[in-house]
Amino acid sequence: MTTQRTVLITGGNRGIGFAIAEEFLAQGHRVAVTARSGAGPEGAMTVTADVTDAASLDAAYREVEEAYGPIEVVVANAGITRDTLMLRMSDDDFQQVVDTNLTGAFRTVKRAAKGMLKARFGRIVLISSVVGLYGSAGQVNYSASKAALVGMARSLTRELGSRGITANVVAPGFIETDMTAALPEEQQKAYRDAIPAGRFASAQEVARVVTWISSDDAGYISGAVIPVDGGLGMGH
């Protein structure tokens, strides 16, 4: 029997974040999601917040804490892309991606950690990507922001590990989402051919790994990078 926890997922209004929220709900947890627009799945509390704005994030946390109590599991999932080759990439293209994907994760985790330290329990899950360690042409900004989450999780593990708090990275590969569906068919085929599993993952396959790493069963795993990529990133 899994202990019921209060869970907050950033960027829970679509794609992987939405699927993670659905899976936590299915397992009986109290779930809140942040979104800049739209809403999480039915049964989840949706609060409007932008991870690039610390004040909006703090207000969202207060709203969730008033409804559900302190956050016990936080999933830093909010992310954006601004893909283009490096020589065409503007400072702004780089800065915006890093501010959302990396600094946004820092703000999200820092705000959650206070309650976790008091409770001497916490699960921090950072959603990275196979390209964080594998690399991807046209994604210097995105891959840098996603690789940095590994160092963050490992430093958090050293800081918080003795207080019953774990910090792990889940690194999805290609997932069946609106983003991959919009790619040209030849490009989708080229990606599939590179994946040993020969297919893209469902968002639910990622969500189930996130709920497991957040569970009581995974209390002795911290600072790990868990790939959910069908073997694409092996050895990285």
Explain what this protein looks like in three dimensions.
This protein is of the alpha/beta class. The protein has a single domain (6-174, 207-225), classed as NAD(P)-binding Rossmann-like Domain (Rossmann fold), CATH 3.40.50.720. Helices cover 45% and strands 16% of the residues. It has eight helices and seven strands, in the order E-H-E-E-H-E-H-E-H-H-E-H-H-H-E. The chain has helices spanning 15-26, 54-68, 91-119, 131-134, 140-160, 178-181, 185-194, 203-213, and strands spanning 6-10, 30-35, 45-48, 73-76, 122-127, 165-172, 225-228. The chain has a seven-stranded parallel beta sheet, sandwiched between helices. Strand 4 (73-76), helix 3 and strand 5 (122-127) form a beta-alpha-beta unit. Helix 2 (54-68) runs parallel beside helix 3 and helix 3 (91-119) runs parallel beside helix 5. The protein is globular and about 50 Å long. The N and C termini lie far apart (35 Å). The mean pLDDT is 96. Keywords: Oxidoreductase. Pfam families: adh_short_C2. This is 3-oxoacyl-ACP reductase FabG.
Keywords:
alpha/beta; 236 residues; EC 1.1.1.100; 3-oxoacyl-[acyl-carrier-protein] reductase (NADPH) activity; globular; oxidoreductase; 3-oxoacyl-ACP reductase FabG; Rossmann fold; KR_dom
Q: In the CATH hierarchy, what is the superfamily? A: NAD(P)-binding Rossmann-like Domain
CATH class descriptor name: Alpha Beta
Strand content: 15-25%
Kindly identify the CATH topology: Rossmann fold
Shape: globular
At CATH level 2, the architecture is 3-Layer(aba) Sandwich
CA radius of gyration is 17 Å
Count of helical segments?
8
Low-confidence stretches: none
The side-by-side strand order for the widest beta sheet comes to 3-2-1-4-5-6-7
Content-based structural category: alpha/beta
| Mean pLDDT score | 96
- The domain count comes to 1
Q: What composes the largest sheet? A: 7 strands, parallel
Domain Ketoreductase: 5-178
GO molecular function: 3-oxoacyl-[acyl-carrier-protein] reductase (NADPH) activity
InterPro entries: KR_dom (IPR057326), NAD(P)-bd_dom_sf (IPR036291), SDR (IPR050259), SDR_fam (IPR002347)
Protein name: 3-oxoacyl-ACP reductase FabG
